[in-house]
Design a protein that fits this description.
The structure is a homodimer.
Chain A (H helix, E strand, L loop, with lengths): L8 E15 L2 E10 L5 E5 L2 E5 L4 H13 L7 E6 L8 H11 L14 E8 L14 E5 L10 H18 L2 H6 L6 H12 L5 H10 L3 E7 L9 E5 L1 H14 L1
Parallel strand pairs in A: 1-6
Antiparallel strand pairs in A: 1-2, 1-4, 2-3, 2-7, 5-6, 8-9
Chain lengths: 251, 251
């Protein structure tokens, strides 16, 4: 470690960000390219990296996401620490990290290399990315077609899929944060179907949607369809929050 | 670090266990005594410690809980990583940890000392402890009367209280794992009141309990009360699990 560096990395703890979205009707995860020393692409990985010595975990997650993708206003949620000794067994991965972070990691360890990573999760719109082309190495990859990734990134994404479903159940607001301001009943159902990877009965889903009193019908209808003009709905966040508080009180 | 030691500690990552229970009608947390070099008590802390270099996080949590309390069959759940640089600012805490773990921690750091801790959570019966007196330094302390603890243990307990309520909402099974095999409606309500720190309307709660189809009335009544003999109920775990699967399918 060089004393004159502004930020010293902590070679023992990293964060990884699992950003999910629906792209081409598939639940997808945002991956970034990994380069070798010559700058050639050698595969994909989660946006992630070592924390700075003087940086809180949440701050590190937002910094790293922003550096890798240009994204700023994503609501990240810490979801799990992954710390198996196995995750750094592949020396290639660690050598790559040394190169990418421009820091000797090996020498921080007298014994086995061990990096615990704290994983963060978000569901966001796929168009959330910086306007410029600086982040061309970003790719949305369907979760059923993941490449082999370094460290335990495949495992992290698999666990994140369970977590996002659980989160969508508990806090439906995150599903609406993904949707446009106006959406049809069929678009909402389709979103749930994709997140939960399961066809849902139309009538059952309509009942479920009616029970969501914070989903408000608007005066607008969707034009341009051949035989019908389905109504647009909107998500009333104020009402949602009020109901959530009331529900918690009545419990 | 001595090479001949069977287990090397990782001086950068620890786990802490927040065990909660209801003791004397109060939501309480299990704390253990901290000793100075002469073996004198210098206060209380969460059961916790550094992970071994070759140990997964979950394994470390179960080992540390068992070492500190003799408990074995508690269902621990990882709930959050705490990694603020502030948590190891008090040098006294770090010196104590060096002494307690019999390991030089300072020398592992060229710069600021930084230990990220992974916190685990469980709700359990207060009588869960080893039969012998080896664990006399264990204390159940009400969460509204916590002492000042080392590192960020006060913050961890505060966050754990929110987490346990959220968990009890999502998975009522953990509430029943706390209760005896047979319980009255009033005992169940009282348990919820204590966990959520809120008086609950008797009639509303009865409705809520009726909706819990996995809470089954038994033939037994509670004897020894002056004017009434309330019925005992039991928790049907098989039914609960079936309903949970069904609920998830219908979503």
């Amino acid at each position: 470690m060089k004393k004159e560096e502004t930020h010293l990395f902590n070679p023992h703890v990293s964060v990884d960000c699992v950003l999910m979205s629906i792209v081409d009707h598939k639940l997808s995860v945002l991956l970034v390219e990994r380069w070798d020393k010559r700058g050639e692409t050698i595969g994909l990985k989660l946006p992630g990296g070592l924390i700075y010595q003087e940086e809180d975990l949440d701050d590190a997650a937002y910094r790293i996401l922003n550096e890798a993708t240009g994204m700023k206003r994503v609501q990240l949620k810490q979801f799990r620490a992954f710390g198996s000794p196995e995750r750094t067994r592949n020396k290639e991965d660690v050598l790559w990290l040394e190169n990418a972070s421009n820091q000797k990691i090996m020498q921080a360890y007298q014994e086995t290399i061990r990096i615990v990573t704290i994983a963060y999760l978000a569901l966001c719109k796929p168009d959330r990315k910086a306007a410029d082309t600086e982040y061309e190495s970003m790719h949305w990859v369907p979760i059923d077609n993941l490449p082999r990734m370094p460290f335990d990134h495949n495992r992290i994404v698999n666990e994140a899929v369970f977590e996002i479903r659980d989160w969508a159940d508990r806090e439906p607001a995150i599903v609406f944060s993904y949707l446009p301001k106006k959406f049809t009943a069929s678009e909402l159902r389709s979103t749930y179907e994709i997140i939960f990877n399961r066809k849902m009965d139309v009538r059952n889903f309509d009942k479920r949607m009616k029970a969501m009193s914070y989903v408000i019908p608007t005066e607008d209808v969707k034009e341009g369809l051949a035989h019908r003009s389905p109504r647009y709905y909107r998500f009333d966040k104020t009402l949602y929050n009020k109901l959530k508080i009331k529900l918690n009180k009545n419990k």
